Amino acid sequence: MVAAPPALAAPALDLPTTWYGPAVARFEAEFPGNPYDPDENDVRVVFVGSSGERIERIAYPDGTSAYEAVLVAKAPGPYRPLLYRNGVLQPARARSDVVRLDERLPRGFLRVDQRNPNRFVWDDGTPYYPLGFNLGWQMPEMPPMTTQIARMGAAGIQWTRIWASSWDGKNPFWPVNDPAAPRDRLWPPALAKWDALFQACEKAGISMQMVLFNHGAFSTFVNPNWPDHPWNVARGGFLADAADVFSDREARRRMKMWLRHAVARYSHSPALFAWELWNEVEWTDASFAGRFSDITAWHEEMACYLRSLDPYGHPVTTSALLAPASTWRSMDFLQPHLYTDAIALFARLGWLPTRAPAFFGEVGPSRPARVNLRAFVRDALYAGMLRNQAGTPMFWYWDLVEKHDLYGEFRTAAKVLDVSRLPSHARAEARPILVIPPSPALALGECDWLTVRITAPSPRTVRILGARLDQGDYHRTTIDLDTGQSSEDRVRVGPTGLEVALPAADVVMVLDKRSGGCRDEA
């Protein structure tokens, strides 16, 4: 007899790490009780390798009469799947007696870079620098989200952020036009929508930040959806006050059901960047009631729960405009939001910390109709890059990206990241350079490398001071941000800085000495 599986443990990973898979084990099996509730049905699969090694994964109900478990592991080869329920081996046999892990995941999974704690990294050691915009939910007038994801990938975008929202049928606790759906279970059509989104992201090469809960569902003040929430006692639910969601035992139990299922069903996907617990938790009723200790305790409990289940160690975060600092205490990276029409001021913001990854998960103008959106998006992208934030600030209005065809801005930004190798310069610092004749400029540099954006009135020759570069010859790549075209030449840095010709008014220049080391600063 095969022994009961051990409890899941947090993964211990050393980079580089190689993963193989995925492979799916499917069991035709039904058990009494709620299939989504681990208190009634703690269903897991133990995969036994050819050398006797045992790897455990949570199994999830697929919405029919079957359970599935997905395996990604560090060793290739055949594995024999065994089904357990509540610690007891079951007689059910898998559809295939053996599953094989033959294909290697190209880069593994994403995580915080322990060597450069202000950045992210793939398991194979490749730096990851998020570039993208939000794709919160399906808008009725927009193309299908899967189509939008494909367009994003074609533009060089490799990050997006998607909500488990009720109004487009992605909230697993909120059946849409399905009154017969059980109230205490997850809703299979919502889960199927997430399946399609993950598949689209994998195909497009995009990493998804998955937003598990949003403020409006438990708010009567800001985007209030609480009056219609299935958990509301007024709708036949169990929760009398939206402010109790963080402390109520039944609410926390059900939320853990969703987290557990999400880990079982989606954590194997290399397209999963991070779990985001809440969107803007400060707009919930609990926050308005001053119940910050409840909010902090909930975040710590759920982050710990996710980490105990996720075998691949995806980062955990939350997002906010104004949440108390304690909200972030158990998060892996900082994710503030920012809305402002003051583009010139925004372009110079550099206050995000670098002791841990931090980038703006939402940015946008507070009055989009009054702002030059192309200029706003461009300023936001290069402000984040050239302040060495962990990713670009992420534009919120995905419908306006489509309406105004702003994809070119992201395509050019992807080119800048590639040409500059900025993701590999985690320890670069903002340089307060001076451009003569005067022109606005932002720069990020090391002693033998500089990436700078200069916005001049017209093409001209300028002198750059304060870059603190080693003297010598540099390879220069200049990218015209209006056309995306680039040119290459050589320039010389002397004791009084450098003089360069700008072939266009708005450019990014990359100066690279390619010397492999630093000497005296200029």
The spatial strand order of the largest sheet comes to 18-20-21-26-23-24
The portion of residues forming beta strands comes to 25-35%
User: Tally of extended strands?
Assistant: 26
- By secondary-structure content and strand pairing, the structural class works out as alpha+beta
Rg on CA atoms, Å:
25 Å
Distance from N terminus to C terminus (CA atoms, Å) equals: 72 Å
Based on CA inertia axes, which overall geometry fits? globular
Tell me the helix content.
Answer: 10-25%
Ranges with pLDDT <50 over ≥5 residues? 1-12
Name the average pLDDT. Answer: 93
Count of helical stretches: 9
The major β-sheet equals:
6 strands, antiparallel
Please give a structural write-up.
The chain is an alpha+beta fold and 522 residues long. Helix content is 20%, strand content 26%. It has 9 helices and 26 strands. Strands 18-20-21-26-23-24 form a 6-stranded antiparallel sheet, with helices on one face. Strands 2, 3, 6, 7 and 8 form a 5-stranded antiparallel sheet that branches. β6 (77-85) and β7 form a beta hairpin. α1 runs parallel beside α2. The radius of gyration is 25 Å and the shape is globular. The N and C termini lie far apart (72 Å). Mean pLDDT is 93; it is low at 1-12.
